[in-house]
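Kindly inspect the following:
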Amino acid sequence: MTTTAVPTERFQLLDEREAARRLGVKHTTLQQWRHHGGGPPFVRISARCIRYRLEDLERFAAERLRASTSDDGSHAQDA
């Protein structure tokens, strides 16, 4: 008997709109980031099917954590 592990929420693939909702941006912003670079990593299932891993979205947000508006992140400490 073969069992399949149920993926935890962290490893589930999120569609573009759900990923945008979790980041608090419009889905068109994610599209622009994919086109120009600088956004979170994504999974290209096919030419018209893009997904995001929750762990990548969390890392993307954590890397942009700042203490003030003048904090450019150059002195960020590794967690």
Notes: The mean pLDDT is 87.
